[in-house]
Design a protein that fits this description.
The structure holds three protein chains of three kinds. Chain A is an alpha+beta fold. Chain A has two domains: 76 residues, Beta-grasp domain (Ubiquitin-like (UB roll), Roll); 75 residues, Orthogonal Bundle (DNA polymerase, domain 1), CATH 1.10.150.120. Chain A has five helices and six strands. A five-stranded mixed beta sheet of chain A has the order 3-2-6-4-5, with helices on one face. The model of chain A has no long low-confidence stretch (mean pLDDT 97). Chain B has 24 helices and 37 strands. The two termini of chain B are 62 Å apart. By secondary structure, chain B is of the alpha+beta class. By secondary structure, chain C is α+β, with helices and mostly antiparallel strands. Chain C has three domains: 47 residues, Uridine Diphospho-n-acetylenolpyruvylglucosamine Reductase, domain 2 (2-Layer Sandwich), CATH 3.30.43; 116 residues, 2-Layer Sandwich (Uridine Diphospho-n-acetylenolpyruvylglucosamine Reductase, domain 3); 92 residues, CO dehydrogenase flavoprotein, C-terminal domain (Enolase-like, domain 1). Chain C is 33% helix and 27% strand. Chain C is built from eleven helices and 14 strands. In chain C, the strands form four sheets. In chain C, strands 4-5-10-6-7 form a five-stranded antiparallel beta sheet.
Chain lengths: 170, 993, 272
């Protein structure tokens, strides 16, 4: 147990998309700002800073969370995944990204990283969701451009592709 | 939406996948806040007014000596260093982007600080002390016109700053001759399509020009560039505006970022460093921009056969506290189509531009259309129901007929093309209107509340830059000189290895312009879209641009696409001339295909595209006689149909006009007031479809924000001017669960004859139709006229039920606190002390200090007047407030009035309480109290549903402390009225605990 | 929207948290999931000197079913509880109510204890705790005490927890064999705080109903053998007793309508 003083920048280390990273943060520094401006991982976006819009959603130890509602110092030692780590190893789109691409499921793309990270967890736990379930799962991510229809279709397509991928590999 | 593919090697009309996605799906987008800034760049935070209306008595920045803070600007700096920002007409409003001597809306900037990071800048903002003298506020546009209404701008003689009256045809006569007439008054609420990315500006003063370099997500129109340079007192070429590749949506809102650009330039100038400002969501919701709310009185006259002969529209357009260019443009952008798609030849319009104590208005997707068409389409529904006619039949009878195109509407719009009847037929068939009507019958038979609604709209695209001049009188216009057209600019160049580059002025906000322009240029040059590079990040120092540049009013498909088409055609022509000499064939006979230029009659006679491009760079001497070297064509495109306002105030407000038609069935739950969409169909004819994937995306996006405007979204203000929708938990943006599925119908397109590819805009249609269509269905279901958006269930239920079940006989109703946001209540407390000793406490600052929660010390500042610093709050929420108390109406020891105010970083509050001290037996007193409190500032904006309870808790704590102070340690019980009554009721209720 | 300055400590045990609370008292604030605290910090509505992060303290996380109760460590996340095997059998009401708390992303962080300590009048967990007559266990250097739901939550965002106390466990009585539950919620958008939320429980002919979102905290009534129009009468009186106020989402009157309407539905749903 270590008290981190308010006006000092403290070393924070964790893994970001599998790679060990570190930087310095005052206790009050939001994780969003740390990711974006200390580590240069600007793919995670900020839309409200009060937890409602979902643009900042990342995976913390495999679970989708709002990074605007976390402090950088809280993730010491954690494993974080962001949009930058979503593509396949060869750089190609993951099934989720591919489905978004083919379905015109993004316009400005500002909400997209948060949605992709949310759905990464969601589809892992719910490989075969219904349309209605997808809408409920999406409700924590606001999008102003698309009207959601194509996003829902993309997620259903991605679920199918992932199931097939899974079926093929097992 | 189906592809409308022409020949196999053509790309316009195809569902070409978006190239923009490659970066956006991998986290490599380039939004303003993603881009690196120069070392030493500072970060700004803005201090904002907690008051809807107040004089600024003083601003004390002396506490800003803290380290890391580099500069601060206040309204004084703006007034010294800039000129007021111009709008399209002479008016008595000085607007600097920051309050100078008065604040006029909650959230108005009062000071801006530049510090080494945003956190410090926010610390600094909190350390600025501002003293305000609150003034009465007005938020209703009609009340603002009352003679005793608070006047916002002292130089004006009224809160109505412009009135214009238009007569087209002979409305007076038409009304006099009519069989029937109808009148309806509409109130359209305030909303916006709050983009997910907020405003972002990085500004830097540039020594060599004496001007500024600004990176921002400004969306245009760049006519505002000169508003900024005039305000900043610099030459036009000394303000370099840049925008990055990506913008996180705008929907109009990022137009009104320009006042912030001016403020940031001044701050950067003072700080002598670049300064970056990223607006936060609270700032965006309270103070960025909003569609003007509007009151419209609409009158119509019509024949027995259902032919509408005349409309009279009187608009009171509430633009909030200031006018910012191009406001009040939405009133005028729609002027030419005031009669929508109907063949109505008499029209009278009166436009009142009103100011109130709300956030200044700005552009919102739809730009004046939602307000106008809501009135017109609601009137169609009303006329039909008065005639006992099917509303769709009424619509059909009045629509412009196909053979009438191009059709000059009575107010001047030159409707280019369309077949409105066919759209309705196709929509009714594909959307299964018959089934809908059957469902309605079945629902009514089952006793349900079910209604059907229709709405039609003419959807303007590519605004005439001259329409705002319609606001001026003919004389004023003559003096100012003609204004018209809408210049779009695209440059297509071919480099030395034959690669094609496209640069344009469309400032995309996410719509996929790069992909579409690549499709258009590829088709001209016989290449694949992937061969074409498209750069749409803008830079006024380098790009071709004109006033109309930007992303608004459905501009892209008609304007930018036409300019790209023209520029590519010129490149093609030049390359054909070069190839003609190489192939020894006439230039007119050459085809561009698959990366080759070939003779149409002898396809083997071909030369690779890149060779021709290369020749223009590598060997100018080989070019045909007189030809310039290189290949770079800039097209500046406007359309001759965009003419200035006529002497009779007719204006062709836009270039191309699409058509939209919706119908729906809704069922209303009589128990909850929830309106459920049972079936919905929408059809849009937007001429040539450039990329169906994207066109459909625009419709679906517009549908979602149409649903938002219809059911959820409103910038709510209290009557006192306090702003109440400060978070995304209060301003309700629909999520995937709230946006229902609907039937998208693809009618036969009628291409525009005035745009190069026949394309019209498509992004706004459902902003117009969806609210009107659903409101018409609700009106049909309820037989109720005054349908007010958004359709919050509480509101709808109140229309349904005139009375509420009272509490049981013999018990007075418990007092609920109704009316927003005036927080009030009453209660009583028994104190074991005489009225005299209670009285002494109330008048003694030392004793009062002990009973005010969070107060250490009160000082007397006059007769029965106190002040003190008080830590006020509820639960974990706490803030330091400067509290002032004033005891008046003293009637010792019977009654007194306590008037107080509190001000601090969390907001401001003022209130009054009345105490009645009633002696009771045994040296006790019954203290009856009532209070009313007004809250504004941050707590009001974000506190939402918790405010009443929180206020009550504080009052109860105070009363309990009073009782303790007066009566020694004996714990007193405070009964707010409802609790006291609750207990009495409980006693009566059998079985209850 | 950036938080003010504070010191930060991540504790590993209850002991450490309690010590720090004793040291700093009112100046300290516990952060569990941060789903309510962080928005308030970002808006600078809250200004602690020290933030005590309990999210990683192993002993503050976990669920135990013992005898008559389910005991949930305070920093157990709402999603962990939702995924708990025994939920449906032992706490069927919570199985219905938990999915209404925000979104799965907020439930991944938001904790059971955090929701109760935050004491929002519209929250689902306090409503369930009130209906089920659960108990909050509080620990401080001064000792341990257990407060019944009605003694714990006292008003808007206000509990009887003292500044030096940590909520350590929440005890929910297991559902009696014969109990039938219903949960109803009305909100503007999916995932929003409730405009009105109701939880009902029936054992034989005894019915208990709890209502959130109207008064300053959840309120509970119980009745025996109510039938027919007596149900409506009882609900009407309950609705009037709750008071409530107007806000931008609904009026006080609308809330009363919902109590009458949804109360009837909830009670009907529990009927045999
Ligand atoms: C978008 C969004 C939607 C939401 N919707 C809902 C909803 O519909 N219903 C709902 O109920 N909630 C909702 N919430 C809030 C909910 O997610 C929170 O989980 C909950 O209110 C607080 O739990 P927490 O663990 O996050 O607590 P924190 O935010 O960490 O803390 C909340 C308060 O409790 C105190 N506290 C926490 N734990 C303890 C402890 N063990 N001992 C002493 N004090 C403690 C803290 O000091 C703080 O004052 C929503 C939140 C968001 C962001
Ligand atoms: S930015 Fe985190 S939820 Fe909106
Ligand atoms: S794509 Fe723009 S917000 Fe979703």
């Amino acid at each position: 147990m270590n008290l981190l003083e308010s006006n000092i920048r403290h070393l924070v280390r964790f893994t970001l998309n599998g790679a060990q990273v570190e930087g310095y943060a005052e206790p009050r520094l939001l994780l969003t700002d740390f990711l974006r401006h200390e580590l240069g991982a600007t793919g995670t976006h900020v839309g409200c800073e009060h937890g409602v819009c979902g643009a900042c959603t990342i995976l913390l130890d495999g679970r989708a969370v709002r990074s605007c509602l976390m402090l950088a110092v809280q993730v010491e030692g954690a494993a974080i995944e962001t949009i930058e780590g979503l593509a396949q190893e060869d750089g190609g789109f993951s099934p989720l990204q591919q489905a978004f691409h083919e379905n015109f499921a993004l316009q400005c793309g500002y909400c997209t990283p948060g949605i992709l990270m949310s759905m990464t967890e969601y589809l892992r736990d719910n490989p075969n969701p219904t349309k209605k379930e997808v809408r409920v799962a999406l409700s924590g991510n606001l999008c102003r451009c698309t009207g959601y229809h194509e996003i829902v279709n993309a997620i259903l397509d991605a679920a199918k592709a992932l199931r097939e991928e899974d079926g093929a590999s097992s | 939406m189906p592809e409308q593919v022409q020949p196999p090697n053509k790309h316009v009309g195809r569902r070409t996948l978006r190239r923009e996605n490659l970066a956006l799906l991998t986290g490599k987008g380039e939004f303003v806040d993603d881009l690196p800034v120069k070392p030493g760049t500072l970060h700004a935070a803005i201090l904002r007014s907690p008051h809807p209306h107040a004089e600024i008595v003083s601003i004390d920045c002396s506490a800003l000596k803290m380290s890391g803070v580099h500069a601060v600007v206040t309204g004084k700096d703006l007034a010294e260093r800039t000129d007021p920002m111009l709008v399209g007409f002479q008016n008595p409003i000085d607007y600097y982007g920051m309050a100078t001597d008065r604040v006029r809306y909650m959230g108005e900037p009062v000071a801006a600080v530049a510090a080494t990071n945003r956190y410090l800048a926010e610390d600094a903002v909190e350390a600025i002390k501002v003293e305000y003298r609150p003034l009465a506020a007005v938020v209703d546009p009609l009340q603002a016109l009352a003679p005793d209404a608070p006047l916002l701008h002292p130089r004006a003689d009224s809160n109505c700053v412009s009135t214009r009256h238009f007569i087209h045809g002979a409305p007076e006569e038409a009304f006099a001759q009519a069989d029937h007439g109808a009148t309806l008054t509409i109130r359209y609420p305030r909303n916006s399509i709050t983009p997910m990315e907020t405003y972002a500006v990085v500004a830097e003063a540039v020594a060599e020009t004496g001007g500024f370099d600004v990176l921002s997500n400004f969306q245009g129109p760049f006519s505002l560039h000169s508003v900024m340079t005039r305000a900043l007192r610099v030459r036009s070429n000394a303000l370099r505006l840049r925008s990055p590749k990506n913008s996180g949506g705008s929907f109009g809102s990022k137009l009104t970022i320009f006042p912030y650009i001016v403020v940031l330039c001044v701050l950067a100038g003072k700080a002598k460093r670049p300064v970056k400002w990223i607006e936060d969501r609270l700032e965006h919701l309270s103070a960025a921009s909003s569609a003007a709310n509007r009151v419209t009185k609409i009158e119509a006259a019509y024949t027995e056969a259902g032919k509408i002969t005349v409309l009279r529209l009187t608009h009171w357009d509430d633009n909030g506290a200031y006018l910012r260019a191009p406001m009040p443009a939405p009133l005028y952008r729609m002027h030419g189509v005031s009669t929508n798609g109907y063949d109505i030849r008499n029209l009278e319009v009166t436009n009142h531009v009103v100011v109130t104590n709300k956030c200044p208005s700005g552009a919102v997707r739809g730009f004046g259309g939602p307000q106008l068409y809501f009135a017109v389409e609601r009137m169609m529904q009303k006329v039909a129901s008065e005639l006992g006619m099917d509303p769709l039949e009424l619509v059909r009878r009045n629509l412009i007929r196909p053979e009438q195109f191009p059709y000059q509407a009575i107010a001047g719009a030159l409707l280019d093309s369309g077949n409105y009847q066919r759209v309705i037929e196709e929509a009714s068939a594909a959307g299964d209107l018959d089934r809908l009507k059957q469902r309605k019958q079945a629902a009514l038979q089952a006793g349900k509340l079910y209604g059907v609604g229709y709405a039609a709209c003419v959807e303007p695209s590519q605004s005439n830059m001259g329409y705002i001049s319609t606001l001026k009188t003919g004389d004023e216009r003559r003096r100012a000189g003609p204004k018209d057209g809408a210049v779009a600019s695209v440059t297509v160049s071919v480099d030395a290895t034959g690669s094609v580059n496209v640069v344009g002025d469309s400032v995309p906000q996410g719509q996929g312009h790069q992909t579409v322009l690549a499709q258009v240029v590829a088709d001209q040059l016989g290449l694949a879209p992937d061969d074409i590079a498209v750069a749409l990040d803008t830079d006024t120092a380098k790009d071709g641009w004109s006033l109309a540049a930007g992303n608004y009013s459905n501009r892209f498909s008609p304007a930018s696409v036409s300019a790209a088409h023209l520029a590519a055609e010129r490149v093609r022509k030049k390359m054909a001339d070069i190839a003609a000499t190489m192939l020894n064939a006439p230039a007119e006979d050459l085809r561009f295909e698959n990366g080759k230029i070939l003779a149409a009659h002898n396809p083997d006679n071909a030369v690779p595209f890149y060779r021709v491009g290369g020749l223009a760079h590598w060997s100018p001497s080989s070019l045909p006689e007189g030809m310039d070297p290189g290949i770079r064509e800039t097209a500046m495109w406007s359309a001759p149909e965009l003419t200035p306002t006529s002497a009779k105030d007719e204006i062709n407000t836009s270039l191309a006009y699409g058509f939209g038609f919706d119908f729906c069935g809704v069922e209303i739950d009589p128990a909850t007031g929830v309106v459920r969409i049972d079936q919905y169909a929408t059809a849009h004819d937007c001429g040539t479809i450039l990329n169906p994937g994207m066109a459909e995306g625009q419709i679906r996006g517009s549908w979602a924000s149409g649903i938002g405007a219809t059911f959820y979204e409103e910038f709510a203000y209290g009557e006192d001017g306090s702003f109440l929708s400060g978070t995304f938990a209060d301003y309700l943006v629909p999520s995937a669960c709230e946006v229902p599925e609907f039937q998208l119908v693809h009618p036969t397109p009628t291409p525009s004859p005035y745009t190069r590819l026949g394309a019209k805009g498509i992004a706004e249609g459902n902003q117009y139709t969806t609210p009107a269509c659903i409101a018409n269905a609700v009106a049909d279901a309820l037989g109720f006229e005054d349908v007010l958006l958004p359709l919050a269930p509480a509101k709808v239920l109140a229309w349904l039920q005139s009375s509420e079940r009272p509490p049981a006989e013999g018990t007075a109703p418990a007092k609920a606190e109704e009316g927003k946001p005036r927080i009030g209540g009453s209660g009583e407390v028994q104190v074991s002390a005489t009225p005299e000793s209670v009285w002494d406490i109330l008048l003694d600052p030392q004793q009062m200090a002990k009973i005010i929660p969070g107060c250490d010390r009160l000082e007397a500042v006059g007769d029965n007047r106190f002040r003190g610093d008080v830590m006020l709050g509820v639960g974990p929420i706490k803030g330091l407030f400067e509290v002032r108390l004033d005891l008046t109406d003293l009637d010792k020891p019977r009654s007194a009035k306590l008037v107080g105010s509190a001000a601090g970083p969390l907001g401001s509050s003022s209130g009054a309480g009345v105490f009645n001290l009633k002696p009771m037996e045994g040296f006790a007193t019954l203290v009856e109290y009532s209070y009313s409190i007004q809250l504004s500032g941050k707590v009001a904006a974000v506190g939402g549903r918790l405010l009443h309870g929180a206020a009550r808790q504080l009052i109860e704590r105070f009363m309990a402390a009073l009782a303790r102070q007066a009566g020694g340690d004996a714990a007193a019980e405070v009964h707010s009225t409802w609790r006291a009554l609750g207990r009495r009721l409980l006693a009566l209720l059998g079985g209850a605990r | 929207m950036k938080p003010p300055r504070f010191d930060y400590v991540r504790v590993e045990s209850i002991e450490q948290a309690v010590e720090l609370l004793a040291q700093h008292g009112d100046e300290a604030r516990v952060i569990a999931g941060g789903q309510s605290l962080m928005p308030m910090l970002n808006m600078r509505l809250v200004r602690p000197q020290v933030l005590i992060d309990i999210a990683k303290a192993a002993e503050l996380s976990g669920i135990k079913a013992n005898g008559k109760a389910v005991s949930i460590a305070a920093a157990t996340t709402q999603n962990a509880l939702l995924r708990w095997q025994g939920l449906r059998a032992h706490l069927p009401l919570l199985a219905q109510a938990l999915p209404h708390i925000g979104h799965f992303q907020t439930r991944n962080r938001g904790t059971v204890g955090g929701s109760l300590c935050h004491a929002d009048p519209s929250s689902e967990l306090p409503l369930c705790l009130a209906l089920l007559e659960g108990v909050v266990e509080l620990r401080s250097r001064r000792g341990t005490r257990r407060l019944a739901a009605r003694d714990f939550q006292v008003g808007v965002l206000t509990t009887a927890k003292q500044a030096d106390e940590l909520a350590t466990r929440i005890h929910f009585p297991k559902a009696p064999e014969d109990a039938v539950f219903a949960f109803k919620e009305f909100h503007r958008r999916h995932g929003d705080f409730a405009v009105v939320a109701l939880a009902a429980m029936r054992c034989g002919n005894a019915v208990r109903l709890a209502v959130g979102g109207v008064g300053d905290r959840p309120e509970v009534r119980s009745w025996c053998g109510l039938q027919g129009s007596a149900i409506d009468d009882a609900l009407n009186e309950f609705a009037w007793q709750l008071g409530g106020s107007d806000d931008i989402h609904a009026t006080a009157r609308y809330r009363r309508e919902l109590v009458r309407h949804m109360g009837r539905l909830a009670i009907a749903e529990t009927a045999p």
